[in-house]
Amino acid sequence: MRERTLGAMWKDAGPRLRSVLRMVAALLFIFPGTMKLFGWPIAMPGGATAAFGTQVWLGGVLEVYGGALLLLGLFTRPVAFLLAGEMAVAYFQFHQPKGFWPIQNGGLDAALYCFVWLYFSAAGAGPWSVDALRHGRTNA
């Protein structure tokens, strides 16, 4: 009987875990967008929603629709690249002026999402995605 090392088992699971990470991150990413656009599941500070056409509203649109596309794994690379840029702008425009460290300035989520989406723009969606179905690569 051939024993598999832990490293070999994780190597085989890597592409599927990439898909799981994409789906979980995308689902969680949608919530700040629904908060900005619909006041759900909680309202923005002050109880309002983002005014139509403002930068915050545009961010909400990108988070809801971009997050949904990433959840499905559809057009993953370009959408993830766009969302990485959105998070970089959010960090440097809204968070970084409040302090140097992300934990200090409230930008921890924006910084982390920026690099998660940058990773997916390079790595792709993984085997459990519409992109993989479109390109015939469902078994990784």
UniProtKB/TrEMBL annotation:
* Membrane-topology descriptor: Multi-pass membrane protein
A GO cellular-component term linked to this record:
plasma membrane
Domain of life of the organism encoding this protein: Bacteria
Keyword Transmembrane in annotation: yes
Which Pfam families does the UniProt record give? Answer: DoxX
Coiled coil stretches, renumbered: none
Kindly indicate whether the keyword Transmembrane belongs to this entry: yes
Q: Which stretches are transmembrane? A: 20-44, 110-130
Compartments, record wording: Cell membrane
> Which InterPro entries does the record match to this protein?
DoxX (IPR032808), DoxX-like_oxidoreductase (IPR051907)
Say where the protein is mainly found.
membrane
Assigned keywords, A-Z? Cell membrane, Membrane, Transmembrane, Transmembrane helix
Family under the similarity heading: Belongs to the DoxX family.
- Name the UniProt record assigns to this protein: DoxX family protein
Native organism: Eiseniibacteriota bacterium
